[in-house]
Amino acid sequence: MKVEIKKVGINGEGIGYIDHLPVFVPKAMIGEIVDIKITEKNKRYARGEVLKIVSKNKDRMQPKCHLQHVCGGCSLMHVRYPKQLEYKREILKQSLIKYAQVDPRRISNVLPSEDIFAYRNQFKMPCGIDEGYLESGMFLPNSNYFLGIKKCIIHDKGLEEIRREIMKVLNNAHMEAYSHKTKKGLRNLIVRGFDGKYQCTLVTGENEIGASLIQKLMQIKGMYSLWQSVHTTKKTTEVFGKKVVLLAGEKYLPLQLEDIQLQISPRSFFQLNTKQAIQLYRNIAAMIPAKCNLLVEAYSGIGGISMYLKDKAKEIIGIESIKDAVVNANQNAKKNGCEHVSFLCADAADKLIYLSKKRNIDVLVVDPPRSGLDDAMLDCILRSKIKNIVYVSCNPATLGKNLAVLQNRYRVERIQPIDMFPNTSHIESICLLVRK
């Protein structure tokens, strides 16, 4: 049946209507008329698959990756980049109106990424056997079918080169893919790199990585450190095992971010697009008023944002629940000579309740996971007297739901979207909230 696409969905799919029922159609664009096959239908919505594009959008293009239709990671690669930015603002706008009735005039245009391809500084890829060889790749959505990926064009070029070399060495050493029966083999390959230096983690079963294999891997150009994490748990979304052990090389991967030096451990979070991370930090800083007394950052990770804001407050306190990240963050503060910046290992809501009772917090910066702020955190903020909040979000839906609650006490001043992930439907945004 023919459907006209009227809207863009949160995952980048087109949305049309059949008898007032919304139909979600991946890879269809606004304004297109498409012949579709219904693949799923219930009382609230339906899903469809494009059979033929009857009327094509002028901004449609041929995806540069031949696996785009299979992988699903780059759901907007068939859309020209300027139009991708429009779609992302629309996705954000729809969520904020739906959940929090935010005035769309508060939402600025999306800041574009300097690089549209080869921007990603890290990958975490499952491993399996493909055409008789051990390969890094992906499992097809909702299946156990493994697909080896020879080349990913959104990965940094050096990252792709070192991935090929690592797989070559592992194949020559006859490393096997992980098996739940034997609890042996390579399960995931994780590599992160900046400025030609790469940190590699082999997530394996109960394997002992021999000295000869370690030596050969460390001889790969750009290999800065090699780690192993044993992970034998079934049915888990965790990529790492409980421990990560250094096999060779340096303990921390260095990153120069303007005038800040950061040291990053394998499990520490850092933005996947380095150039856009600087854009993000600059725009967070721009939303903070003239130098304040106390700034608190919740979900502070390795302290990158707090370090960048070092000149914005007389005192900065970061709160993070992951112990390794807190140790990492305090080392970064010391390395950068920031005596007025410190990090505490605690639950964000619990520690914020304590701090807000004892101290006057001028600015709170929050950069929560995709699930957003939990009820305890929202309740704590509403009961506090925090003057300004800078909310960094990677999920428009949870941002909208959180703003619906926070607007009881705070006014949404402005929202700046930033494109961290070109060719995908993901959109990062910074929201400034001022206490009423």
From TrEMBL:
Q: TRAM domain: from which residue to which, for each copy?
A: 1-52
The annotated active site, in chain numbering, is: 394, 394 (nucleophile)
Q: What terms describe the molecular function in GO for this protein?
A: rRNA (uridine-C5-)-methyltransferase activity
Q: Which GO terms describe its biological process?
A: rRNA base methylation
The protein's UniProt keywords, in alphabetical order, are: Methyltransferase, S-adenosyl-L-methionine, Transferase
Residues where S-adenosyl-L-methionine binds = 271, 299, 320, 367
Question: Would you identify the family this protein belongs to, as annotated?
Answer: Belongs to the class I-like SAM-binding methyltransferase superfamily. RNA M5U methyltransferase family.
**PANTHER family reported for this sequence:** RNA M5U METHYLTRANSFERASE (PTHR11061), TRNA (URACIL(54)-C(5))-METHYLTRANSFERASE (PTHR11061:SF30)
Protein name (record): Putative RNA methyltransferase YfjO
Protein's organism = Amedibacterium intestinale
Q: Which gene encodes it?
A: yfjO
